[in-house]
């Protein structure tokens, strides 16, 4: 006798399923989102006719899947070479970060190269997108614009226009008729994404989908959305800065450790091939409390300036304020400086920040933070043209970091004269020169500070009692 299907319960936000009703989703922690959904009886799969016979992999043609430039160099860099025909790309980011501006620029550049492009907007009217295109210079005859929120209408536009590039802004605003739920729900997003990906594969159309993010920064909707697409891109940036970064979270056609840099202005978005100048301040004279770190964003070395301010305080709990830096790493560096370098900061307020909105989360910036803090405490400026690279251990040792030659080469290219890097534990080696830059090795943070003239004896530390 056939078994009666047991009822199941599904979260309307993320698609999580459970055998019994609960008030709070066990996956996304949303309250009141679990509803009953009858379990469907799945028929047993049968063998059917194949669409195309299997062939040896060496005989599969690849000419139709060659990279094609999008006209935006930094976007091509992140994608691994450009747009691939038939690829499905998901671009996610916070509201107002510039997702629509970036994709309108890519669509306009593709249309300018003679390729027919279709831009479907579900969040704005066609006239609003036209105004932005006028402002950014993105009006071309081969760029077609449609304002639709129905999946059937979007597919009809694809049939009529026959584009090479399809942009859907956004997938959460498109609804499919006959599918339960409202646009943006789990079922609707799954169906819309599956239909658009299916059209992209069958018609060899490069499709870019814009996705919303939740308040914690993750992509909204079911997790299956990230699985069905070929590429997942994250567009991020601070609201107080024009600088934007594009990261690849998933890429079937290239590396996932590439980063693209952009400058978002009122007249559009432009690629930034060398963003180091945005994160390094040009001082007319040496200022205590500053040091330049060489960090890696993906595979691209970037120089960023770290600034520190140390002031005496009479408060029982001194302040530890950071901007663009990891607060836990700063606390660890402060403990190492006090324990192994004799720099007492338990009675001082410490403020540490980066320039230009840069975010330094890599441990390789520990030495630059330590140099900036020691310089701010002693009141002695670090020598001009010095970059510090290295991770600090709890014992005060300097640990080597990955891709050190690339970091040193980038510092030399930008005119720095000295780079302090981790060295052997048996003592500092004789400095060597790389492209005009002197590389100085130090086994621990105390040796590095002494080489830069920032040891505890450089100047009497400013304590609360002395001031």
UniProtKB/TrEMBL annotation:
Motif placement: RadA KNRFG motif: 250-254
Protein origin, superkingdom: Bacteria
One of the Pfam families matching this protein, by short name: ChlI
Record SMART domains: AAA
Region described as Lon-protease-like: spans on this chain: 349-467
Keywords: ATP-binding, DNA damage, DNA repair, DNA-binding, Hydrolase, Metal-binding, Nucleotide-binding, Stress response, Zinc, Zinc-finger
Gene3D superfamilies for the chain: 3.30.230.10, P-loop containing nucleotide triphosphate hydrolases (3.40.50.300)
Residues where ATP binds: 93-100
Domain RecA family profile: 64-213
PANTHER family attached to this UniProt entry: DNA REPAIR PROTEIN RADA, DNA REPAIR PROTEIN RADA-LIKE PROTEIN
Family note: Belongs to the RecA family. RadA subfamily.
Domain-related comment: The middle region has homology to RecA with ATPase motifs including the RadA KNRFG motif, while the C-terminus is homologous to Lon protease.
NCBIfam families: sms
Function field: DNA-dependent ATPase involved in processing of recombination intermediates, plays a role in repairing DNA breaks. Stimulates the branch migration of RecA-mediated strand transfer reactions, allowing the 3' invading strand to extend heteroduplex DNA faster. Binds ssDNA in the presence of ADP but not other nucleotides, has ATPase activity that is stimulated by ssDNA and various branched DNA structures, but inhibited by SSB. Does not have RecA's homology-searching function.
The protein, known as: DNA repair protein RadA
Species whose genome carries this gene: Nocardioides taihuensis
Lineage: Bacteria, Bacillati, Actinomycetota, Actinomycetes, Propionibacteriales
Gene field: radA
